[in-house]
Write a structure and sequence with these properties.
By secondary structure, the chain is an alpha+beta fold. 26% of the residues lie in helices and 30% in strands. The protein contains 12 helices and 21 strands. The protein has a 10-stranded mixed sheet, covered by helices on one side. Strands 5, 7, 9, 10, 11 and 20 form a 6-stranded antiparallel sheet that branches. A hairpin with a 5-residue loop joins strand 13 (224-228) and strand 14. Helix 6 packs across helix 7 (309-318), helix 10 (368-378) packs across helix 12 (399-410) and helix 11 (383-395) crosses helix 12 (399-410). The longest helix has 13 residues, at 2-14. Residues 1-16 form the signal peptide. Keywords: Signal.
Length: 415
């Protein structure tokens, strides 16, 4: 009896661990609150060792191309789109860099499955052991005539359900300290999520990292409606179905950084109004300056939702340039736990004693004045000024979304 009890206690101890996760859902909305499509572009290439579906390599174009050429006789020409090379349609949400950490006193084998209701998990590391397979058109009858691009296009305006699975070994703290996480080709965005407290993870193929990583694209409404009225007041409405525990309103414009911390977040179905005079802080922001209070306020808010200090700092530092160094108005808000689970259902075996999943909605918002400026620029007869608009649409990460908004404004409303 004592032996059986000891074994049960040992098994319990081996699975007594905590799982933490952070990541971002990015959206772009016009001043009218409508989410805009075209968010398949990315701003930083992933390392060559990362994995992806064919056409979604974001820097790694070595994997998959030979197989397609072999099956189709000729390569489909997709046209490079800043990371997503396969043609897509209707992408209104970019899921960016969710990372899963394990905190355990012992080593154990783990099975992880993440679903994605509304999108595809397009990139990941380490290599997965299962998950969705994107549709691929059959080889053409004539190898010299590849299938048309329309047959390769993924349309996310239609219902979509993605998934990924991993089988891995969570290393003990001692093994984790001895593990080599360095990889030739490591990027700054890749290294910053590593934290010393987390256990290392190793797959059967020997791939070792300090976290499980995945990204995706899709089309769904995360649940926070944002609009900007004619008097430039920002309006927020929580339609997530639960309480938003923390929100952070940020704007960088005209050499000034201003922000408002919403420590208590926003209750379910509640609304908030933030006029231009309603920002709690405003400081001059010369180019390349570091506004330390923004860093500290954002980190504190994330820690209050359950992340470790090191995890919150890792998230803010990974995305600092994208979050806080770029001009624009944006709201960062933590999704309610039930909303996160509904969009990204997580199954882990053995189950953790505690899970902390902090998925941050990043809502990029266009002010009416900026929309009018772009509309005028798009109609400008001066070739130089018009070229600046075309260049913005082609090169900017959110250029396709901006273009959609301007085209909507330019289209007469049917009576």
């Amino acid at each position: 009896m004592k032996t059986i009890t000891a074994l049960l206690l040992s098994a319990t101890a081996a699975s007594a661990y905590t799982l933490h996760e952070w990541g971002t859902f990015t959206t772009v909305a016009g001043s009218d609150g409508v989410l805009l499509a075209g968010l398949e572009r990315e701003e930083a290439a992933l390392p060559l060792f990362s994995y992806s579906h064919f056409g979604m390599e974001n820097g790694n174009i070595e994997r998959g191309f030979d197989d397609v050429a072999r099956r189709h006789g000729a390569m489909p020409i997709f046209g490079f789109m800043k990371g997503i090379n396969r043609p897509v349609r209707g992408v209104t949400v970019k899921m960016e860099t969710p990372v899963i950490y394990f905190h355990s006193d012992e080593a154990f084998d783990v099975s992880v499955k993440v679903g994605f209701n509304g999108g595809t998990i397009s990139q990941w590391y380490p290599d997965r052991t299962g998950g969705e397979a994107l549709p691929v058109p059959p080889p053409p009858a004539d190898p010299k005539k590849p299938r048309p691009l329309e047959e390769w296009t993924l349309d996310f305006s239609k219902p979509w359900k993605g998934s990924i699975e991993w089988q891995a070994r969570v290393l003990s703290p001692a093994e984790s300290r001895d593990a080599i996480l360095f990889k030739p080709g490591d990027s700054l965005h890749w290294m910053r999520p590593r934290i010393p407290e987390a256990n290392a993870i190793r797959t059967a193929d020997g791939e070792t990292e300090g976290f499980l990583f995945y990204r995706g694209v899709g089309a769904f409404d995360p649940g926070l409606t944002t609009t900007v009225s004619g008097d430039d007041t920002l309006h927020l409405l929580n339609r997530t179905g639960g309480d938003i525990p923390f929100a952070f309103v940020f704007e960088k414009s005209g050499g000034t950084t201003r922000w408002k911390v919403m420590k208590d977040g926003l209750r379910a179905d509640a609304s908030a109004e933030i006029p231009t005079s309603g920002f709690a802080e405003a400081v001059p922001n010369p180019a390349m300056s570091f506004v330390e209070p923004v860093y500290r306020d954002m980190v504190s808010g994330l820690v209050a939702t359950g992340l470790l200090q090191s995890e919150a700092r890792a998230m803010v530092e990974t995305w600092w340039n994208s979050y806080f160094a770029q001009d624009g108005l944006r709201v960062f808000w933590v999704l309610p736990a039930a909303k996160t689970e509904a969009i990204l259902p997580l199954q882990v075996s053995p189950q953790p004693e505690k899970s902390v999943r902090v998925i941050v909605g990043r809502s990029e918002i266009l002010r009416p004045a900026k929309e009018r400026e772009w509309l005028a620029l798009s109609r400008d007869t001066d070739k130089t000024r018009r070229a600046s608009w075309d260049d913005l649409c082609f090169r900017d990460r959110f250029g396709l979304a901006y273009k959609q908004r301007v085209e909507t404004m330019a289209t007469p409303v049917a009576k």
